[in-house]
Amino acid sequence: MSRQQFIGWAFGFSMNHQQNKMQVLLERNKPYTRTCINCQVKNGTCQKPAGLLQPIPAGELFDRMGIDLLGLLSKTTQGQKYVITYINYGMRWTETTAVRMGTASEVTQFLLENVTCRHLAHSKILTDMGKVFSSAVVQELLHLLDIQGTMASGYSPQCRDFMPP
């Protein structure tokens, strides 16, 4: 017995003679079915299940680093509107600096002065997909320092453990 035949039998009319009435009844019940908690629990969802999170291994002390550019923030008295954030995944050491425009040259200068000169060159860097990090200047610096660059989505839950939202 099909669903429509069962509903027709339950309400006491034949599907052959009352086809139009059955369609009207089904249309009237759609809003109730969509809001009924029992119907929603039994029907499940149409979405695929979420994938497994793959945590980022910390590795050795100077193996992996992350960098992010935060902004557009309110202007400081020196005219700075962006903040560059760096983290060493092995030691969980962070450094930040405020910059004026958030350009690729400012990011490159930060990487050279605040990261490489103080903490050595790391072997891997994790950034978001910002234009600054994919620019030719930053990519050339990473190539010269022999740093393997990896880009991740800013909404990736694995990245949110270390970088500020």
Write up this protein.
By secondary structure, this protein is of the alpha/beta class. It is 35% helix and 18% strand. It has helices at residues 3-10, 19-35, 37-43, 104-119, 136-144; strands spanning 64-70, 82-88, 93-99, 124-127, 148-151. The radius of gyration is 28 Å and the shape is elongated. The model has no long low-confidence stretch (mean pLDDT 77). It comes from Dryococelus australis. Residues 53-165 form the Integrase catalytic domain.
Key structural traits:
5 helices; Nucleotidyltransferase, domain 5; 2 domains; alpha/beta; 5-stranded mixed sheet; single chain
Write the layout of secondary structure elements.
Blueprint lengths: L2 H8 L8 H17 L1 H7 L20 E7 L11 E7 L4 E7 L4 H16 L4 E4 L8 H9 L3 E4 L14
Parallel strand pairs: 1-4, 4-5
Antiparallel strand pairs: 1-2, 2-3
InterPro entries: Integrase_cat-core, Retrovirus_Pol_polyprotein, RNaseH-like_sf, RNaseH_sf
Protein name: Integrase catalytic domain-containing protein
Radius of gyration based on Cα positions: 28 Å
- What is the CATH architecture descriptor of the largest domain? 2-Layer Sandwich
Number of helices: 5
The CATH class of the largest domain is Alpha Beta
CATH topology description of the largest domain:
Nucleotidyltransferase, domain 5
Shape: elongated
The structural domain count equals 2
Strand content: 15-25%
**What structural class do the secondary elements suggest?**
alpha/beta
Q: Any low-confidence stretches, pLDDT <50, length ≥5? A: none
User: What's the CATH H-level superfamily name of the largest domain?
Assistant: Ribonuclease H-like superfamily/Ribonuclease H
Largest sheet report: 5 strands, mixed
Distance between the termini: 55 Å
What fraction, in percent, of the residue positions are helical?
Answer: 25-40%
Domain Integrase catalytic: 53-165
Protein name: Integrase catalytic domain-containing protein
Organism: Dryococelus australis
InterPro entries: Integrase_cat-core, Retrovirus_Pol_polyprotein, RNaseH-like_sf, RNaseH_sf
